[in-house]
């Protein structure tokens, strides 16, 4: 089977809700990432054979195939098609899997996997908030209710609490993890660890007017964060353990990676950053929902013939602090290798863009640290998880 290589990976710095990226139409934001991938590789834009774009909130400005619209707003020619993928939080990680599979099958040589989410302009859960009567217009169909009678709906917040209880994770443990995520992100930002992966853009007001400031630093990092301050944030439910401070931040952003074949490497003179080593997907309990990365990681390692100690760096999405902490407990991974530059609690979680966001950070971190193997996984709505193992070249 042919190999698939990542030759460029880029992301915008995360923008807070109503922040420096809120004035960007998501189509234009995604188009800037597509342009940056072409610029960084120097490839002929017409050589791109497809754009696969993850997006969860496919409504409003992100509707009507946001992937194709981003192509049309970019420097890519009209001949480049585009499609949009929704695997919830793993949408752009799935876009990466689809891109790699296209290349590995030999049907394509140059594919862009990307993601975009403007949570300021298309609020979370907007597509499911349409007016409804009984079951009409609601994703919980009669058949789904019959199969899961004790779940009035699938809730990530309830799932996060269930995981905290199942793995005996106290609120103090969750808050400490959240504080550590900010500290790692602060250290990485101040050391310039993100400089090579961030596409610097001009900030815009909510009305779309340029502010004259450049957006180059993840806006969600709380440089003044204190453990006491995190502990004082109100819990999301009485008697629970999850708060807004130990959960991922609402975020605007766009990200992308270019995936190519060995033939394209030679034809276009491209230098690979990493090779796709293994891809795994797993469905799990949709009620607990967020636990899927644990068995999915075990499955991926088994299929790759590797152990957890063979992996040098891990990116596990910090949807809630309970997820990476439970993952550490289940896998026995070295905590010092996990989310070394901070995670979504500090940097933000732009939903459908987070998959290629984490991969962008992972391949750059492997390069800067001179490490070989990286593993990325994230929990997804509906009780699923993607796992991607890459080898730095």
Rg from alpha-carbon coordinates: 20 Å
Oligomer: single chain
How much of the residues is beta strand, in percent?
15-25%
Poorly predicted ranges = none
Element pattern in H and E: EHEHEHEHHHEEEHEHEHEHHHEE
- The percent of residues in helical segments reads 25-40%
Q: Report how far the terminal alpha carbons are from each other.
A: 19 Å
Shape: globular
Question: Could you report the average pLDDT, rounded to the nearest whole number?
Answer: 95
Structural class call reads alpha/beta
Q: Number of helical segments?
A: 12
The number of E-state strands comes to 12
Mind describing the biggest β-sheet? 10 strands, mixed
Account of the protein in words:
33% of the residues lie in helices and 20% in strands. The chain contains twelve helices and twelve strands. It has helices at 26-41, 66-72, 91-105, 142-147, 156-166, 171-190, 227-231, 262-268, 293-304, 322-331, 344-347, 354-369, and strands spanning 5-12, 50-54, 82-85, 110-118, 198-199, 201-204, 210-215, 252-260, 274-283, 313-316, 373-380, 384-392. The strands form two sheets. Strands 1, 2, 3, 4, 5, 8, 9, 10, 11 and 12 form a ten-stranded mixed β-sheet that branches. A two-stranded antiparallel sheet has the order 6-7. α2 (66-72) links the parallel β2 and β3. The longest helix is centred in the middle third of the chain and has 20 residues, at 171-190.
């Amino acid at each position: 089977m042919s190999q698939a290589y990542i030759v460029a990976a880029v992301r915008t710095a995360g923008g807070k809700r109503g922040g420096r990226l809120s004035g960007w139409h998501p189509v234009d934001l995604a188009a800037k990432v597509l342009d940056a991938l072409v610029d960084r590789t120097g490839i002929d834009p017409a050589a791109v054979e497809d754009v696969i774009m993850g997006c969860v909130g496919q409504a409003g400005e992100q509707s009507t195939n946001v992937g194709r619209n981003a192509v049309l707003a970019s420097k890519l020619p009209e001949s480049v098609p585009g499609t949009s993928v929704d695997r919830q939080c793993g949408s752009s990680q799935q876009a990466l899997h689809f891109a790699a599979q296209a290349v590995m099958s030999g049907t394509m040589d140059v594919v862009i996997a990307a993601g975009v989410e403007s949570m300021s302009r298309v609020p979370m859960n907007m597509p499911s908030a349409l007016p409804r009567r009984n079951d009409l217009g609601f994703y919980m169909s009669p058949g789904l209710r019959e199969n899961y009678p004790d779940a009035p709906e699938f809730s990530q917040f309830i799932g996060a609490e269930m995981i905290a209880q199942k793995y005996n994770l106290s609120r103090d443990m969750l808050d400490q993890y959240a504080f550590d995520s900010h500290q790692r992100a602060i250290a990485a930002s101040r050391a310039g660890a993100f400089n090579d992966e961030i596409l610097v853009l001009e900030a815009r007001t909510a009305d779309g007017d340029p502010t004259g400031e450049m957006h180059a630093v993840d806006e969600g990092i709380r440089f003044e964060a204190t453990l006491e301050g995190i502990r004082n944030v109100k819990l999301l439910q009485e008697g629970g353990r999850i708060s807004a401070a130990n959960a991922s931040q609402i975020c605007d952003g766009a990200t992308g990676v270019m995936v190519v074949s060995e033939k394209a490497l030679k034809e276009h003179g491209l230098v690979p950053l990493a090779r796709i080593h293994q891809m795994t997907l797993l469905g799990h309990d949709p009620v607990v929902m967020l636990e899927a990365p644990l068995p999915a990681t075990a499955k991926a390692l088994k299929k790759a013939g590797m152990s957890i100690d063979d992996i040098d760096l891990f990116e596990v999405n910090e949807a809630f602090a309970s997820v990476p902490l439970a993952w550490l407990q289940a896998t026995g991974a070295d905590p010092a290798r996990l989310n070394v530059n901070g995670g979504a609690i500090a940097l933000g979680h732009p939903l459908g863009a987070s998959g290629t966001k984490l991969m962008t950070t992972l391949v750059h971190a492997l390069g800067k640290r001179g490490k070989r193997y990286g593993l990325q996984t994230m929990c997804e709505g509906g009780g699923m998880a993607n796992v991607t193992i890459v080898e730095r070249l």
